[in-house]
Amino acid sequence: MKKRYPLIVLLVFVIFFVISFLTNILGPLVPDIIDGFDLSLALAGFLPFAFFVAYGVMSIPAGMLLERWREKPVIVAAFALAFCGSLLFASLPTFGVALTSLFVIGVGMTMLQVAINPLLRAAGGEEHFAFNSVIGQLVFGAASFLSPWVYSYLVTNLDGYEGGGNLVLETLAPRVPKALPWVSLYWVFALVALAMVVVMAWVRLPKFELKEDERAGAWVTHKGLLKNPVVLLYFFGIFCYVGSEQGVANWISKFLHTYHGFDPQVEGAHAVAYFWGLLTAGCLLGLLLLKLFDCRKVLIAFSVAAIVSLTCALLGGAQVAYYSFMLVGFFLSVMWSVIFSLALNSVAQHHGSFSGILCTGIVGGAVVSLLVGWLGDRFGLRAGMTVLYLTLGYILAIGIWARPLIDNATVSLNQLVGSILGRRTAGS
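The structure assignment produced for this chain is given below.
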């Protein structure tokens, strides 16, 4: 049996947490950014575009860098870029600088995503990749739940701050424009990224050799993969998933403020936090379901439920919309991990290169968020968000046509209960 590396799997989960904490904050910030910089919805849509377009530009080159320099230097460089991008915007908070900063941070996050996904598959085992990926999503969602609460705390306490607070507020207040208290988050992000640079530079990673098919290959390898229809179909699967996730998360707060009058710094931020929090809870249920059922059936069920929840959010009253947006997060929870594992388990070789192509699909977060904003300026935000029916519909279709070479490992309910109770059940 191939050796497993549980400590590397744990390290990947820590990196998932930091990636999410640094990047999934745009949703609560959108109303403040629109007001602070006097932006249209379309211009506001350029903020997630600047971040996620980095995945389209950098994913394949990042795979090649990984092949040349290996994991540790790439991860350290990625966090260094995140530090520089966060510090840049924290120091010079303008719209133009924000676009540059988000792109630099996006490049760093791209390098991390490309490095850690094949690493997780190889370290934890191919047959457990879907399961471990859902744990990664659980950690990812937990950090995304935390960051809006940090935002809400900082903004409500720094707005009109006159001193007398705790050390954090006393340190941030002189460095943050009084009219833009949300900029304080980027000082926090800069500190977190710098801490990860120090940790990753200090930690000694065991030598980890990927199999030949798990390495990122040369450009000719990528071109060969791109001629494979299955590769393109899964590329668009990742494109649609991230587009759906960001198309909801980035516009929840603005939608609730526009149509139902919710305060974006309190109720709006909390709605985004619970969107990610329920995404985390959905991962817990997903861990159980992926041990009992074929992941394609799980994907179909969650896709249908997400579409129903989105409909209730767009058409329902204030409270229905508030809670239905949260439920969309719950039903998006297993989609990334299932699509990614189906993709890598549907080709026999070149998984490192394929991972780079899949991560390029994260550019969907740029395109869909921008499209929602553009349509929202012309037809209203509710109409703009209907584009999410197309992306969720495509994800539903994946559960129907997917034919992986390796199915996810499942057990019977009796076997699962027996393992939880710590004893073998009859017939196991």
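Interim note for the steering committee: The radius of gyration is 21 Å. Residues 6-421 form a domain with the Growth Hormone; Chain: A; fold (CATH 1.20.1250.20).
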